[in-house]
Design brief:
- The protein is α/β, with parallel strands linked by helices and 452 residues long.
- The protein has two domains: 3-135 and 338-366 and 412-451, Rossmann fold (3-Layer(aba) Sandwich), CATH 3.40.50; 140-321, Rossmann fold (3-Layer(aba) Sandwich), CATH 3.40.50.
- The protein is 44% helix and 14% strand.
- The strands form two sheets. Strands 6-5-4-3-1-2-14-13 form an eight-stranded mixed β-sheet, sandwiched between helices. The chain has a six-stranded parallel β-sheet with strand order 9-8-7-10-11-12, sandwiched between helices.
- The N and C termini lie close together (12 Å).
């Protein structure tokens, strides 16, 4: 049975889509391994996969991909963020060489695929599929999020959802900014000033809205890379303003009366789900804004515009429908708005020659990595990690603790029951035989999913 690994970086953003993709593989008789990206990357010698679908197909990972391929593993790439850009030309900056080490690259749309093709001659491993997580927004699948929204609406009633996208102005971990700058270069001072101003104007807008709609709850949904504390401190005296980062953002979009964003993929997700959506743009700067979230949203350039649109959305039946022009434009970047990316990816994987001789011994960790892995999965892991962090803090090094906290924020935990519940819903639309779910040894939050 062919084994395919599906690493997840940010659980609340990617997990549902990766499980949906995995179930499509399982329906074709394949075994899937699903879990946090760092756990999966560090245990390939244990899981012994045939295909590795990386969530980060960039040049900085070429050495790792070389190791996988030398062990006989097929390597494919699907970007976590591959459809929304400040500049389309920036998308390919970290992909100058990496496609030479991939068996298949899955592009979100034809437009980003063209940008990648321009970097290579006669490259036949680029496939326009879309990202499977957007399959779940199609009418026959979005019931998953509508069902999850019911308890949210029971708690908050009709609410305004404001989605943050301000990791540069409000970072949870400065290391993320450093990594981005290593790839794309330092942002000019003008861009920093612009992003900081937008963030502060967004905060001002929340104060304005809670005064204009005093009986309506406002839900702030920070970006996974943002610092939640900034919002908590800013609105601690506002009874109807709540900071929520639990669950998939689509659950909150499905229950919202209206979504407000600035330059965020959640604007596109809202439009695809039929939730009224407005992009708040008190300052306009096309050089530093992504075009696509603006194209599919209503646009408010002033607080008065924003208030008026929200008022209309709160006082009418909730449904938002894109125009033909908006849909046509969006499909260039999000290919699967009306077809299945998961099916296309399964077809591509099935066409690959995966009968290479395997040599998993080449992937054995060195002594340091092996000790770290054993510590993380031992019954004493919490005590050992706490002691490790304390020693580093005494030495003036906060980095290990902060990095671990940041990873935990992006992927908290997942239980077997949680996976089984989503599988039960997927089984309503996918013709599939019973499956088994089992934990992977020497890992945390990582599971085998396979036909029984």
């Amino acid at each position: 049975m062919e084994t395919i690994v599906l690493p997840v970086e940010t659980k609340v953003r990617e997990f549902d889509g990766k499980l949906w993709l995995g179930m499509n593989f399982v329906s074709r008789g394949k075994e899937v391994i699903l879990g946090p990206s760092d756990e999966i990357r560090n245990t390939v010698d244990v899981t012994e996969p045939d295909v590795y679908i990386t969530k980060d197909p960039g040049d900085s990972n070429i050495d790792f991909f070389k190791r996988l391929r030398s062990a006989g593993i097929s390597v494919c790439g699907l970007d976590t963020e591959g459809g929304v850009f400040d500049s389309i030309s920036n998308y390919s900056i970290n992909k100058r060489k990496v496609l030479n080490y991939l068996d298949a690259f899955f592009a979100w749309g034809e437009r980003p695929a063209i940008e990648i093709r321009n970097q290579y001659e006669n490259m036949m491993n680029i496939h326009v599929t879309g990202n499977p997580r957007f399959d779940l927004l199609q009418p026959h699948l979005r019931f998953i999020y509508q069902n999850r929204a019911k308890p949210i609406n029971e708690r908050y009633g009709d609410y305004i959802l404001l989605n943050g996208n301000f990791s540069q102005a409000n970072p949870d971990n400065q290391g993320v900014i450093t990594k981005i700058e290593e790839i794309y270069g330092s942002a000019p001072e003008e861009e920093h000033t612009y992003k900081n101003r937008i963030f502060n104007l967004f905060l001002d807008a929340i104060y304005h809205l809670q005064a204009k709609f005093p009986e309506t709850d406002i839900i702030i949904r920070p970006h996974p890379s943002e610092n939640n504390t900034t919002y908590e401190e800013a609105f601690q005296r506002c009874d109807h303003v709540h900071i929520e980062d639990t669950g998939d953002v689509r659950n909150w979009i499905a229950g919202a009366s209206v979504t407000v964003h600035h330059d965020c993929t959640t604007g596109i997700e809202s439009a695809l789900m039929g939730t009224p959506v407005v992009s708040y743009r008190p300052i306009q700067n096309k050089e530093y804004e992504a075009e696509l979230p603006q194209v599919v949203s209503k646009q408010a350039l002033t607080l008065e515009n924003l208030t008026e649109y929200i008022s209309k959305s709160l006082n009418r039946d909730k449904y938002y429908e894109m125009t033909t022009d908006q849909t046509t434009h969006l499909k260039q970047y999000f290919h699967n708005i009306d077809e299945s990316a998961a099916e296309k990816m399964c077809d591509v994987i099935s066409s690959l020659d995966t009968d290479n001789e395997r040599n998993y011994a080449e992937l054995k960790p060195d002594l340091k990595q092996d000790i770290e892995r054993r510590v993380q999965t031992s019954v004493f892991s919490d005590e050992i990690i706490t002691l490790y962090d304390k020693v580093h803090l005494l030495l003036g090094n906060e980095s290990p603790q902060k990095q671990r906290q940041y990873r935990k924020q992006k992927f908290t935990s997942v239980e077997k029951e949680e996976i089984l519940q989503l599988i039960q819903q997927i089984e309503q639309v996918l013709d599939i035989n019973p499956v088994s779910v089992e934990e992977v040894s020497m890992t945390n939050n990582t599971f085998y999913i396979r036909p029984e």
